[in-house]
């Protein structure tokens, strides 16, 4: 953890006891909040959370991470009951400059309430995923997704509607 970094873990957050399978890399002034009753599941794959200098990552209560990689250079904000499955990557920047003339680009990512990002999905910079959304396996989310939408594909496109996920088991 860098100087001035904050890591807040809510009440009743659970994780497996797999040594080295859950890593937090926090730069100076980084801010991370993990909501109450979140499950950080590392049974299938490790979870890597990287929050760079001055960036923030927030997961709402009752969220669920399973073997994924979250990288924030700006902000990643997930609402209540954000589910992110194994092999998923949520990355709010290009990670580095393309060359001397093309600077690194980045923009915050927002995930609404009751979102399920299934498996092997990549969500890139500047995307807003609405509430009650399901993103199908192996998709690339590179544009905003409206509330109550099922998307999948490369790039992810609307394929159907999703009802009230607040009652899903």
Q: What structural class should be given to the helix and strand makeup?
A: mainly beta
**Count of DSSP strands:** 20
CATH architecture: 3 Solenoid
Tell me the strand percentage band: 35-45%
Q: How many domains, as an integer? A: 1
Q: What is the CATH first-level class name?
A: Mainly Beta
Q: What do we call the CATH homologous superfamily?
A: Hexapeptide repeat proteins
Number of helices: 0
The radius of gyration computed from the alpha-carbon positions, rounded to a whole number of angstroms, is 15 Å
The strand line-up of the biggest sheet is: 2-5-8-11-14-17-19-20
Mean pLDDT: 95
Helix content: under 10%
Low-confidence stretches: none
Q: Write down the overall geometry.
A: globular
Predict the CATH topology. UDP N-Acetylglucosamine Acyltransferase, domain 1
User: What does the main sheet amount to?
Assistant: 8 strands, mixed
Order of helices and strands: EEEEEEEEEEEEEEEEEEEE
What is the rounded distance between the termini?
A: 35 Å
């Amino acid at each position: 953890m860098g100087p001035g970094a904050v890591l807040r873990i809510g009440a009743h957050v659970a994780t497996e006891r797999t040594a080295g399978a859950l890593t937090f890399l926090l730069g100076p002034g980084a801010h991370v909040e993990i909501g109450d009753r979140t499950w950080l599941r590392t049974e299938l794959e490790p979870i890597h959370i990287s929050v760079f200098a001055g960036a923030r990552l927030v997961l709402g209560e009752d969220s669920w991470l399973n073997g994924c990689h979250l990288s924030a250079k700006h902000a990643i904000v997930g609402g209540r009951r954000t589910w992110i499955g194994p092999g998923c990557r949520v990355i709010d920047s290009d990670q580095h400059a393309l060359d001397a003339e093309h600077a690194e680009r980045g923009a915050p990512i927002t995930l609404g309430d009751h979102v399920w990002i299934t498996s092997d999905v990549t969500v890139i910079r500047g995307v807003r995923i609405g509430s009650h959304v399901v993103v199908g396996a192996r998709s690339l989310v590179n544009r905003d997704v409206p509330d109550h939408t099922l998307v999948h594909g490369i790039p992810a496109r609307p394929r159907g509607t999703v009802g009230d996920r607040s009652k899903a088991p």
